[in-house]
Amino acid sequence: MADFRQTSILPAHRPGSSAEASAWRKYTHPLIFKHKAAPTHVEFSPVAPHDFIVVNSLQIDVFSARTNAVYRTLSRFKETVCCASYRSDGKMLAASDERGVTQLFDLGSRAVMRTMRGHTKAVRAVRFSPDGSRLFTGSDDSRVLVWDVAAEEELRALEGHTDMVRCVRVSGAAGSASGAHRLLLSGSYDHTVQLWDVSAPKPVMTLRMTDPVEDVALLPGGGMVAVANGNQLTMCDLLSGGKALQTVTAHSKTITCLHADAQGHLLSGGLDRFVKVYELSRYKVIGSIKYDAPLLSMALSPTRSHLVAALTNGTTCVRRQRVLAAAADSAPRAASDDPTARPLGAKPGQIAISEGVADRYDGTHPGTYKYFLRGRTQAPQGDDLVAERGAPPRLSAFDKALKGFRYHEALDAALTNGSPEVVVGVIEELVQRNGLRIALNGRDQQTLQPMIGFLVRQITRPPYASVLIGVANLLLDMYAPVFGQSAVIDELFVRLRATCEVEVQLQADLAQLMGAMDVLLAGAIPARPVQGSSTSDPDGTSLLRRPAKLQKQAPSKSGVVGVEATAP
Predict the structure, then answer these.
(1) Which of 106, 286, 401, 438 would give a disulfide with 406, using CB separation of 3.0 to 4.6 Å?
(2) pTM of the entire predicted model
(3) Cα–Cα distance between 90 and 107 in angstroms, integer?
(4) Which of 92, 94, 156 is nearest to 123 (CA)?
(5) What are all long-range contacts of 72-76, with beta carbons under 8 Å and residues at least 24 apart?
(6) Across-strand partners of 267?
């Protein structure tokens, strides 16, 4: 009877094992934010520090990319908000609702700057032109409208779809000579993607798909577009008449959102709870991230530091990219550099002993019990450094509270007994733990007064301004509904406003002073002599230092009398 042969077990192959694919697995440490309803749209600001917005229910929450906390809320809506979009300078936000109304907000003051009314049904897509002068909206009424932002009026209605318009994308950059910034893409549930010239009422090109179109993404270069239709991802070449180059099926359910970055990658999120990462050069999936619920929207930070996803369970998941270790720390050392390196085939924990090691350790060598006990009975020599074994350092009150996750007590302890550096350090630690809102919530007059007083005293100091400005914005958003109930708190907020106004005026005066100094310094620089001109006589005497009468008689090299002086 033949001997029994054991079953060979092959190691599982992990897709995307390259260095580029491993970068997408570093989006760890997810932060979960619960909302009143399922968020429908997320988007990052195009300018630093790349804050992001989350559209949910009757409001829009603006998150800080540095603190990962809400620092501003827009809630001037009467119906559910469907989508929103930043202007290219990051100072204005366009938001649309289910009534078909689109509003333009100034993010600095949260004031409504423009109101666009022209659709009869919900507006599902809104985009600014690259120069910010035009606004494009796509609605369930099957139309795409072009708006003049300055005049607050409708310029043109693009009618070509027969079903709800789900997405709008603008091609090109502002001010390009080719006019590519006038091209517009719209995707609809009628299984088509239409390419428009905003100056013409009819579509320039129509791409027909097999399923309803949920989203489109313009790929780097502007000549190709990715279309999410059903659970398929179709790559089309606009320069060759909309020809479908490749179809990728990586999702098991409908793809709901797309995002293309500048490094040649495409991200797709779907109802199967996955985000897939594609390498566009090979149309291959190189990464995959799983979530707890189906995705409705997804966005990647321009710096690739944050990945935000809006889920159907009423939460937003924020994933931050793990900080990479230094290259020197991650690089493996050569075996010749380590005399105790484990040789090939040795057991874990076994130390390789080179020749002469036992002699260096007086008959013992690393790995033996005698080596472990060395020096226990040896008296210190004169040049030895003796490490004293003292009591462990005592934790301060705020450290004890932080250790027990009592964020409210930690902030109170720092404000009571700590210096400004300690208070700011505790605030930064709370930001990293996503506990600053917890620490500031539920405070009365007694506990809120020290916090606002600290802001009044320290918010204008340069080392702390960047942190304390975010804390002040968060306090204003949290306690704005209770203004007027406490005279002490109202007075502190008035003092905080006065402090900020004085600082703003000081910065303006300094800017004017710097401008005046630049003008004075520019006028003090002496003018250089004209190249090729001569300021000396043939005999070497300077014409600039001779009397005017002598300068009149100074002949040039050619024998012609020079120009007379204009002053004696």
Answers:
(1) 401
(2) 0.57
(3) 8
(4) 94
(5) 72/107, 72/110, 72/473, 72/477, 73/477, 74/105, 74/110, 76/103, 76/105, 76/110, 76/112
(6) 259, 277
